[in-house]
């Protein structure tokens, strides 16, 4: 399989050397509509990147492609410098160390906060292993740590369905951390949060970014400013601009399609 | 991957005994197992009383109860896949019937040359169809252990193959329900064919012996009843072990948010495949115990109506509660026995009404309703039961 | 005028007019003198019938048939039927009909009523096998001159099936006069059939040539007889002709296979039409609305029962009953559907598995209601006359009218539904609601009302399907159950939410079923198709014509 430039995955892997995530010429179309149009992007290990763009710019589709939910029509998606993600399904990609937080918080509502974290905990995910899995001391410690970090210690045994919206967002971030992924994809973590919660979330993400690669999709400009990281602007399925928030917000085309309105 | 495994081993203090023990000894399990045991022993003892006694339970009643217990096992198997994993199978009657046919084939071979035509090997219906020799798939069924193996292998294999295709291609929700229904319908049509070699329309019947003992004797009837009770108890423990393990948590996670479970790295299809196959095997065992107690197995057991009826037992009893499934199976079938004799006209009205009322007004079933009433004493339980039911209600698409 | 008469008169009107014209040309100018001569010939022949000798009687029959008198055919038919007698007292030839005692007799020539006579006063003009064959030929030749072209074709066909050498002159005469192309074709074939067994080798080969390609089973029989000699068992000539006949037969066999294929496709399409009629309502309720209605089969069943009730109400106008039943069934099942939607289904939107169970309960309820109101037994539904019978294309292919009408009806219903969804305000609102409920609602569309109407429409269409089904299967309380799984298979196979998908799905399943049937038998074909669909759905869970995109995956 070659991409549109005729570069084989093997050659692409050389270019991708040393990157955490490498997208090149990724195109996805639904019935003629191009959700992603030759999207290219490189995330380096340990980098935190914010992705902004108007509705329909392809942010969620990009996440779908990286996590294996959607297969691209064209292009390379390489992880960790060489693993072709288009050849793996969601579960395999998650096991490789790519964690995803959804736009709408999705936690297991009929499980307690504790059980949600147990399920997310890095462990052997095969059916046989989970049938006989026992929770050991180290697991307990790790969960308590995460409960502390996400401020859910008091809600430990509460059903996730009974959490507030913000608490669910945090639980989901906690679950993301429990997986101990190498790359975190975080979709609108601040949606529906109060200003105070938003600020706290930014602090939490920056903390996380110290030891992980993170891609954050966000609408909230203040939040992106708080993160203070490199920003990529998506528009109609491809990259419009890239740089610091100040750089992109002074870009004429960006102003035209997104900020200027 | 390797790193993850060593990590798990390092921090895990194996306490399998506590897992098994809690499945056996927590309050619900003790009540359920106690109730099954008490009922079984009481019935068998009362059967020993002289017939003149007011407390005498006649043997036909024992077999009737035995039939109910088989249905309870069947309901348990449906609850395992539907209540815990969200797979609404409308084809579990097929697994039940396959187990029943495996047992029926053994019982046919037991007849030997005592059939109407007196053929030493061929069952009557084959002689009637002028068959020369036993079809290859009947080989071995005269050997009890082999037949018992087939009781679980036949439905298990069907479930495995069917599930392998269905779950891998992510057929879910009503689509899965419809194709499971089509599966049992196709099997029904097939088993109605004389050429299939399973007795066509009439199925397998006129059984004589089980392991050399006369099927009609009180002793064998009592033993079959006790075996059904034991199977129900074992089946309950098995399901309890699965649902209280971490796998049980994964199953519920799949039921409530399948794609989220995938993004956590769980291979949803394998979990579904495991639980679907296990459930089919359990249904097969139920069918195998059912056949000698009712004395016949025919293609009617594959009818889509039967499979969907099982679902309503579970729904009425309370899905997602193992004992709910048992309660539902018993209540509906006792009602059915009563209505079909007393008011045969009304039975389908009753059953139809049950479907509508349960789905509209009792999403948690009897167990949920009772639990809520009693649970008001234990404040938090009530809330959790409601949340649980609501979560279930919304997670089915 | 009844519907049947209307249709048949359309079919035969033109032909009748043509025949009248031909008759007029034939008869004009030849009347007068010839009539007298032919009557004399007839009168001379009749007495011979009373003779004992079969040879004399045979001559008499031939004389009657060649007399040219218009009464000849009736006389010969009466001999054939054993209705012709002679009075012992005066040897007068009479027609006799059984009466309470003895016979009522009529003069065979004048038709004068001669009253009742005792059994011993008259004697039947007896015939043997040899005479019977002579009679058949004679009658055939007379019928060839009949003014009715249909009768002439039938006569020519009779000669074809039983070629006798002495029929040749009659055939030639008939061919000279004949102007109707259909009759001529048949006469040519009959002539060829005769020549094939009596002429010179060249004549016979030419005759075989004419017969080659015919789709008439009698011709195949003749060719078959000739071909039997192709192995050299007969004379050299016979072998030559036999080989030619064999070759002609092979060609015909090839054509027959083509026609058999056409017939299978026709059967398949008609089964597909039935499936489509059964499933198209579901394509709306399940496909468009996403409501999984297990009581859909019962809507079909009720539609069929409406047909039954309508026929009970108008027993003297069965011809029209279907035209009353179709709107009646639509209204009845549509109203039931609206009632269901408002009372049960509305509560369960977004909970498909619960909807499945609740509607299944409703299906049991409806079944038992029908069982209680009518009976558990099947009800007799009459097929109007104009739907029975078949159109014979040729000896290898005939199309039954009921299948033809079902296909037509299904196309009409489908087209009407497409129009309704595409061109009417209701259709527009339906599509709006199913695509974006919130947006539709905020634009002032009463979504609840649209839901009820859509469900009512789906149920009503199912009712119409039931009317069609009542013409094909037993109408009983279990009718619906037999079709519900098939209907779901069609909709899911075609691709949910796509009416054209349902159309293609139904037709391809119907045809596939009919192609499998000869090899496997009907039930196994059905099983195979079911298994194939199950496998197919697992390959393409969204069906043949799946909508693609992010929204449907969610």
How would you portray this structure in words?
The complex is a heterotrimer of chains A (261), B (397) and C (554). Chain A is an alpha/beta fold and 261 residues long. Helix content of chain A is 38%, strand content 23%. Chain A is built from 11 helices and 10 strands. In chain A, strands 6-7-8-3-9-10 form a 6-stranded mixed beta sheet, sandwiched between helices. In chain A, strands 2-1-4-5 form a 4-stranded antiparallel beta sheet, sandwiched between helices. In chain A, helix 4 (113-120) packs parallel to helix 7, helix 6 (137-149) crosses helix 7 and helix 8 (195-209) runs parallel beside helix 9 (221-227). The termini of chain A are far apart. Chain B is mostly helical. Chain B has one domain. Helix content of chain B is 73%, strand content 2%. Chain B contains 17 helices and 4 strands. In chain B, a hairpin with a 2-residue loop joins strand 2 (209-210) and strand 3 (213-214). The model of chain B is unreliable at 1-12 and 379-397 (pLDDT under 50). With 554 residues, chain C is mainly α. Chain C folds into 3 domains: 35-144, no CATH class; 145-234, no CATH class; 258-553, Orthogonal Bundle (ABC transporter involved in vitamin B12 uptake, BtuC). Chain C is built from 22 helices and 7 strands. A 5-stranded antiparallel beta sheet of chain C has the order 4-3-2-1-5. In chain C, strands 6-7 form a two-stranded antiparallel ribbon. In chain C, helix 5 (129-144) packs antiparallel against helix 6, helix 6 runs parallel beside helix 8 and helix 12 crosses helix 18 (447-470). Mean pLDDT of chain C is 80; it is low at 6-31 and 548-554. Chains in contact: A-B, A-C, B-C. Chain A: Residues 21-261 form the ABC transporter domain. Chain A: One of its GO terms (molecular function) is ATP hydrolysis activity.
pLDDT < 50 stretches of chain C: 6-31, 548-554
Q: Using only CA atoms, what is the Rg of chain C?
A: 33 Å
Report Rg of chain B.
22 Å
User: For the largest beta sheet of chain B, what order do the strands appear in spatially?
Assistant: 1-4
Q: What gross morphology of chain B would you assign?
A: globular
State the domain count of chain C: 3
Give the secondary structure arrangement, pairings included.
The complex is a heterotrimer of chains A (261), B (397) and C (554).
Chain A (H helix, E strand, L loop, with lengths): L8 H8 L4 E10 L2 E11 L4 E5 L6 H9 L6 E6 L3 E2 L5 H7 L1 E4 L11 H8 L6 H5 L5 H13 L15 H14 L4 E5 L7 H15 L3 E5 L3 H7 L2 E6 L2 E6 L1 H5 L2 H8 L2
Parallel strand pairs in A: 3-8, 3-9, 6-7, 7-8
Antiparallel strand pairs in A: 1-2, 1-4, 4-5, 9-10
Helix pairs in contact in A: 4-7, 6-7, 8-9
Chain B lengths: L1 H10 L4 H10 L1 H22 L10 H27 L6 H20 L12 H5 L15 H25 L4 H20 L11 E2 L3 E2 L2 E2 L3 H27 L1 H11 L1 H6 L4 H27 L1 E2 L6 H14 L4 H21 L1 H18 L3 H11 L3 H16 L3
Antiparallel strand pairs in B: 1-4, 2-3
Chain C lengths: L2 H25 L4 H14 L8 H14 L4 H10 L2 E4 L5 E6 L4 E5 L5 E5 L4 E3 L4 H16 L4 H13 L6 H10 L3 H18 L2 H11 L5 H11 L8 H53 L7 H18 L4 H26 L8 H22 L16 E5 L2 E4 H23 L1 H11 L1 H6 L4 H24 L8 H16 L4 H22 L1 H18 L10 H4 L1
Antiparallel strand pairs in C: 1-2, 1-5, 2-3, 3-4, 6-7
Helix pairs in contact in C: 2-3, 3-4, 3-5, 4-5, 5-6, 6-8, 7-8, 8-9, 9-11, 10-11, 11-15, 11-18, 11-19, 11-20, 12-13, 12-14, 12-18, 12-19, 13-18, 15-16, 16-18, 19-20, 19-21, 20-21
């Amino acid at each position: 399989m070659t991409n549109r430039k005729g570069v084989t995955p093997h050659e692409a892997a050389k270019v991708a050397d040393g990157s955490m995530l490498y997208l090149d010429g990724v195109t996805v179309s639904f019935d003629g509509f191009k959700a992603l149009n030759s999207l290219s992007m490189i995330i380096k290990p340990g980098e935190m990147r914010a992705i902004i763009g108007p509705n329909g710019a392809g942010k969620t589709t990009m996440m779908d492609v990286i996590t294996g939910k959607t297969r691209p029509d064209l292009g390379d998606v390489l992880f960790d410098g060489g693993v072709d993600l288009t050849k793996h399904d969601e579960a395999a990609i998650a096991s490789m160390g790519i964690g995803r937080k959804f736009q709408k918080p999705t936690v297991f509502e009929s499980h307690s906060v504790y059980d949600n974290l147990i399920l997310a905990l890095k462990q052997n995910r095969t059916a046989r292993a989970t049938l006989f899995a026992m929770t050991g001391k180290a697991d307990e410690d790790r969960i308590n740590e995460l409960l502390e970090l996400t401020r859910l210690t008091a809600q430990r045994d509460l059903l996730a369905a009974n959490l507030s919206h913000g608490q669910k967002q945090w639980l989901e971030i906690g679950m993301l951390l429990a997986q101990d992924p190498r790359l975190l994809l975080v979709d609108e973590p601040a949606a529906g949060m109060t200003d105070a919660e938003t600020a706290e979330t930014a602090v939490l993400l920056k903390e996380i970014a110290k030891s992980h690669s993170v891609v954050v999709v966000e609408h909230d400009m203040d939040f992106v400013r708080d993160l203070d990281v490199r920003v990529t602007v998506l528009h109609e399925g491809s990259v419009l601009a890239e740089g610091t928030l100040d750089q992109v917000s002074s870009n004429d085309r960006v102003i035209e399609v997104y900020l200027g309105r | 991957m390797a790193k993850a495994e060593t990590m798990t081993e390092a921090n895990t203090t194996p306490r399998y005994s506590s897992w098994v023990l809690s499945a056996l000894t927590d309050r619900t399990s003790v009540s359920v197992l106690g109730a099954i045991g008490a009922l079984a022993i009481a019935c068998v003892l009362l059967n020993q009383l002289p017939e003149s006694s007011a407390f005498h339970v006649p043997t036909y009643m024992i077999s009737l109860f035995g039939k109910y217990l088989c249905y309870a096992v069947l309901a348990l198997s449906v609850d395992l896949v539907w209540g815990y994993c969200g797979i609404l199978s409308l084809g579990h009657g097929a697994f039940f019937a396959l187990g029943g046919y495996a047992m029926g084939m053994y019982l046919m071979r037991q007849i030997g040359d005592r059939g109407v035509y007196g053929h030493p090997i061929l069952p009557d219906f084959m002689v009637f169809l002028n068959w020369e020799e036993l079809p290859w798939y009947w080989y071995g069924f005269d050997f009890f252990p082999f037949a018992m193996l087939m009781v679980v292998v036949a439905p298990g294999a069907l479930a495995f193959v069917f599930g392998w295709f269905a779950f891998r291609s992510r057929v879910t929700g009503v689509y899965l329900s419809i194709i499971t229904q089509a599966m049992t319908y196709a099997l029904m049509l097939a088993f109605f064919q004389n050429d299939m070699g399973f007795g066509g329309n009439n199925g397998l019947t006129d059984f004589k012996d089980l392991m050399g003992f006369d099927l009609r004797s009180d002793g064998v009837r009592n033993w079959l009843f006790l075996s059904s009770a034991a199977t129900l108890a074992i089946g309950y423990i098995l399901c309890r072990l699965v649902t209280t393990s971490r796998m049980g948590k994964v199953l519920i996670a799949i039921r409530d948010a399948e794609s989220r479970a995938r993004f956590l790295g769980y291979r949803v299809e394998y979990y579904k495949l495991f639980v679907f196959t296990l459930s089919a095997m359990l249904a097969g065992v139920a069918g195998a115990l059912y056949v000698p107690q009712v004395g016949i197995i025919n293609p009617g057991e594959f009818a889509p109506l039967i499979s969907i009826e099982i679902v309503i037992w579970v729904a009425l009893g309370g899905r997602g509660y193992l004992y709910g499934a048992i309660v539902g199976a018993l209540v509906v079938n006792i009602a059915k026995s009563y209505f079909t004799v007393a008011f045969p006209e009304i039975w389908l009205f009753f059953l139809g009404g049950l479907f509508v009322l349960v789905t509209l007004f009792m999403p948690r079933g009897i167990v949920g309703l009772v639990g809520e009433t009693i649970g008001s004493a234990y404040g938090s339980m009530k809330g959790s039961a409601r949340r649980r039911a609501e979560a279930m209600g919304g997670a089915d698409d | 005028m009844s519907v049947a008469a209307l249709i048949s008169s359309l079919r035969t009107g033109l032909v009748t007019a043509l025949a009248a014209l031909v008759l007029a040309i034939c008869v004009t100018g030849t009347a007068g003198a010839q009539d007298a001569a032919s009557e004399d010939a007839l009168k001379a022949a009749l007495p011979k019938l009373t003779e004992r000798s079969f040879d004399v009687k045979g001559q008499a029959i031939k004389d009657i048939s060649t007399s040219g008198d218009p009464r000849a055919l009736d006389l010969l038919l009466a001999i054939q039927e054993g209705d012709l007698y002679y009075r012992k007292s005066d040897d007068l030839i009479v027609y006799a009909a059984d009466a309470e005692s003895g016979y009522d007799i009529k003069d065979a020539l004048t038709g004068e009523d001669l009253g009742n006579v005792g059994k011993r006063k008259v004697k039947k003009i007896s015939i043997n096998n040899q005479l019977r064959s002579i009679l058949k030929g004679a009658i055939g030749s007379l019928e060839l001159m009949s003014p009715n072209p249909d009768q002439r074709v039938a006569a020519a066909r009779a000669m074809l099936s039983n070629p006798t050498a002495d029929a040749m002159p009659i055939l030639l005469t008939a061919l000279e006069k004949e102007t109707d192309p259909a009759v001529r074709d048949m006469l040519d074939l009959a002539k060829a059939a005769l020549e094939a067994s009596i002429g010179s080798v060249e004549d016979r080969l030419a005759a075989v040539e004419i017969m080659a390609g015919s789709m008439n089973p009698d011709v195949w029989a003749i060719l078959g007889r000739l071909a039997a000699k192709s192995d050299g068992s007969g004379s050299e000539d016979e072998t030559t002709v036999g080989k030619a006949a064999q070759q002609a037969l092979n060609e015909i066999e090839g054509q027959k296979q083509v026609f058999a294929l056409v017939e299978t496709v026709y059967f398949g399409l008609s089964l597909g039409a039935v499936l489509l009629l059964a499933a198209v309502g579901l394509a709306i309720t399940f496909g468009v609305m996403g409501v999984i209605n297990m009581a859909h089969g019962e809507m079909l069943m009720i539609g069929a029962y409406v047909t039954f009730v309508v026929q009970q109400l108008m027993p003297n106008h069965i011809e029209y009953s279907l035209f009353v039943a179709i709107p009646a069934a639509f209204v009845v099942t549509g109203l039931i559907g609206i009632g269901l939607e408002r009372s049960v289904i509305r509560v369960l939107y977004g909970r498909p598995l619960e909807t499945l169970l609740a509607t299944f309960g409703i299906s049991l309820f409806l079944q038992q209601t029908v069982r209680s109101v009518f009976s558990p037994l099947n009800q007799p539904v009459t097929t109007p006359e104009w739907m029975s019978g078949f159109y014979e294309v040729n000896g290898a292919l005939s199309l039954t009218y009921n299948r033809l009408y079902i296909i037509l009806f299904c196309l009409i219903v489908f087209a009407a539904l497409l129009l309704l969804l595409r061109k009417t305000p209701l259709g527009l609102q339906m599509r709006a609601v199913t695509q974006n409920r919130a947006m539709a609602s905020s634009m002032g569309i009463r979504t609840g009302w649209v839901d009820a109407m859509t469900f009512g429409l789906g149920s009503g269409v199912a009712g119409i399907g039931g009317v069609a089904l009542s013409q094909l299967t037993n109408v009983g309380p279990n009718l619906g159950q037999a079709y519900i799984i098939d209907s779901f298979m069609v909709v899911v196979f075609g691709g949910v939410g796509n009416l054209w998908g349902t159309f293609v799905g139904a037709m391809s399943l119907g045809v596939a079923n009919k192609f499998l049937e000869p090899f496997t038998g009907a039930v196994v074909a059905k099983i195979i198709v079911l298994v194939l669909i199950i496998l197919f759905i697992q390959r393409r869970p969204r069906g043949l014509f799946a909508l693609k995109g992010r929204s449907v995956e969610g």
